[in-house]
Design goal:
mainly alpha
Length: 275
């Protein structure tokens, strides 16, 4: 659960410095493709986390190391959208490792249960939370075609007409959306939440989240959409304590992402949008 922390996080802490370095490294690695410098900043953030962890917050270095391992694994390959079988398997394998390696280290090597994937909470969803599930596809229908087509960002995804590739693209969009919640929310956000107030942990994970999505293809003014979305997803997870809920939100949104990108490449297909 998110509430499990090493200690009550202070409002302002030197621990923010190494955590901010981890987030900055994601910008360098995914946003600017600065592999050498990005990895140097990543290692510096983890190292400083261990150094400060002795004096500031216990387990800070360990938790930043787990985030750093995941970020480092993702940085070993390009995650630019590609539905060719080779890229499909390569990206899928790397993303799976980025989630599973920190989880396995936490669970079996460190013998903790910090990283979890709580499918559902025992709390009843509010009417607003239920209504939001229905609002998400509408918001996606309203916003996404305008973004993809007007900005030209849809060109960051391949032009697909083959049925097999369309199916792979659909699976890939949903798989990446699921991975986003497993890694950025259930791993990065939860680990950061142990050491920082919610708003600080949320900002730090949202930077990593947005940087990854930039490399994936959400460029131009995409961060104006992806950064608030990342903040909202973590906030919803903190409020509902339900991976199932935030995943449902994400996949409903991603369903419109799929339709909007396919339509942008093939304007005669799926003519349901206004932009």
């Amino acid at each position: 659960m998110i509430e499990e922390r090493v200690e009550a996080p202070p409002r302002v802490s030197w621990a923010l410095v190494p955590a901010a370095l981890i987030s900055a490294s994601a910008i360098m690695l995914f946003g600017f493709q600065l592999s050498g410098w990005g990895h140097l900043v990543l290692v510096a953030g983890v190292g400083l986390g261990f150094l400060l962890g002795r004096r500031v917050q216990r387990e800070l270095g360990i938790d930043l190391l787990l985030i750093g391992i995941g970020v480092g694994i993702v940085s070993t390959t390009s995650v630019e959208a590609d539905v060719q079988w080779g890229s499909f398997i390569r990206i899928g394998t790397v993303l799976a490792l980025a989630v599973s390696v920190p989880f396995l280290i936490d669970r079996f090597l460190l013998r903790r249960r910090v990283i979890r994937f709580p499918w559902r909470s025992h709390e009843k969803k509010t009417r607003l939370e239920i209504a939001y599930l229905f609002a998400v596809p509408f918001l996606g229908w309203l916003i996404l075609p305008f973004y993809f087509i007007r900005s030209g960002a849809y060109l960051n995804w391949p032009h697909i007409t083959d049925l097999s590739e369309l199916l792979r693209f659909f699976v890939g969009v949903n798989a990446v959306g699921t991975w986003d919640e497993l890694f950025f929310i259930c791993t990065c956000f939860v680990l950061l939440r142990r050491h920082f107030p919610l708003w600080q942990a949320n900002l730090l994970q949202a930077i990593i989240f947005t940087s990854f999505l930039w490399e994936l293809g959400y460029r131009a003014w995409g961060p104006l959409l992806t950064f608030p979305f990342a903040l909202l997803q973590a906030w919803l997870f903190a409020k509902t304590r339900s991976l199932g809920y935030v995943l449902a939100v994400h996949l409903l949104f991603d369903a419109i992402v799929f339709l909007a990108i396919v339509h942008a490449h093939n304007p005669d297909w799926i003519p349901i949008f206004m932009y």
